[in-house]
Design goal:
The protein has 356 residues and is α/β, with parallel strands linked by helices. Helices cover 41% and strands 12% of the residues. The chain has 13 helices and 11 strands.
């Protein structure tokens, strides 16, 4: 069956929306849910930020959970087990159904404090965080963890990875998401899917999700079928591609891959994304935030390069309307992006910081 179990949550599709720093905000998650994602994970938040958060118009969307969002997870990163547990309690109280602990982010911090994937080099601290968070969060709410395959490719790093994952299973965490790159790799080189197969063999009873190089629905299905993971998290491949969930569902059901969205369907989704952003983001933020996604949405258009260039020039809603009128007024067949990642993210919009 094409289902996924995370604690008591039973999802009807084993392809979920991953956490992406700067991207998987409420508008992206709400749109993903409308278009078939069974479960979404909010962009990673630093524990100290959550603990200091106040009910202000510019920041309250970080704790926003609507009834139609369920099930939804909060993802946390941090350096101190006590602060981590406090922030986890805050996110659980805000209505998030799952607390996901981030031991996967490869970004180094200027403060010099160990966060994200670098906890994989310190099993004692990592396990303390797992234990504190599991105790702090109500029993009925699953706690999960996101990990890379280690800090580096040394045998010592490999041993630490399995020590931490074993502790997660023993402490009763409901699932683990495993990314096939090391922390030091960041996003360079291929994700080693064969490592996911090894983790599956060593932890046959644990719910495992795979991550890394999932840019298309075909990638998602192939990872599930070749590695034995229970599900996958669509990260960079879901930016500007909310169709990935319906496409994956079709393939898992044995159907052919649906045709790429036509130009009018692309316009509908673009307009809906902007509407959702307007609901929660300040007036000086929502257009700038959605424009980042438009550089990825443009990859589906038959004249993708010209459309992308025009989106780069958008500064006002009038600019936005002109782009839609110029490129999306006439309905045409869409196209699948030629590049598996839709864009060269670093050259077009700078480094895409994700928790993937």
């Amino acid at each position: 069956m094409n289902t996924l179990q995370i604690g008591h949550l039973r999802l009807d599709l084993p392809v979920v929306q991953a956490a992406l720093s700067g991207y998987s905000d409420w508008p992206m998650r709400a749109l993903a849910r409308e278009m078939g994602a069974p479960y979404t994970i909010a962009e990673v938040a630093i524990d100290s930020f959550i603990n200091k958060l106040r009910n202000r118009s510019r920041t309250r969307h970080h704790l926003l959970v609507h009834p139609q969002d369920h099930p939804v997870a909060a993802q946390l990163t941090g350096s101190d087990a006590e602060q981590f547990a406090e922030a986890a309690t805050c996110m659980a109280d805000a209505g998030f159904d799952v607390i996901d602990i981030n031991f996967g982010c490869p970004a180094k911090r200027a403060s010099g404090k160990c966060r994200g994937g670098y906890h994989l080099g310190d099993p004692a601290t990592a396990i303390q965080i797992l234990e504190r968070v599991r105790k702090a969060v109500p029993d009925e709410k699953p706690v999960t963890v996101k990990m890379r395959r280690g800090v580096d490719d040394t045998d010592a790093s490999r041993q630490r990875f399995f020590e931490i994952l074993g502790a997660a299973e023993s402490l009763g965490l409901s699932a683990a998401t495993i990314h096939g790159r090391t922390v030091e790799q960041k996003y360079v080189g291929a994700s080693r899917w064969e490592f996911l197969r090894e983790v599956r063999d060593r932890f046959p009873r644990m719910t495992l999700l795979g991550s890394g190089d999932l840019f298309t629905a075909e990638d998602c299905v192939r990872m599930i079928r070749t590695t034995g993971v229970d599900g996958v998290t669509a990260a960079r491949g879901a930016i500007g591609n909310p169709w990935i969930f319906a496409h994956a569902r079709a393939l898992l059901d044995g159907d052919v891959l649906p045709a790429p969205p036509c130009v009018h369907e692309q316009r509908r989704v673009l307009q809906r994304h902007l509407e959702l952003a307007q609901q929660v983001l300040p007036a000086d933020q929502y257009l700038r935030q959605v424009r980042k996604f438009c550089l990825f949405y443009a990859a589906w258009h038959p004249q993708d390069n010209a459309v992308r260039d025009d989106f780069l020039k958008v500064r006002t809603e009038a600019d936005w309307e002109r782009v839609l009128q110029r490129w999306y007024d006439e309905d045409r067949c869409g196209r699948f992006p030629e590049h598996p990642g839709h864009l060269n993210q670093r050259s077009m919009i700078g480094s895409v910081s994700t928790s993937d």
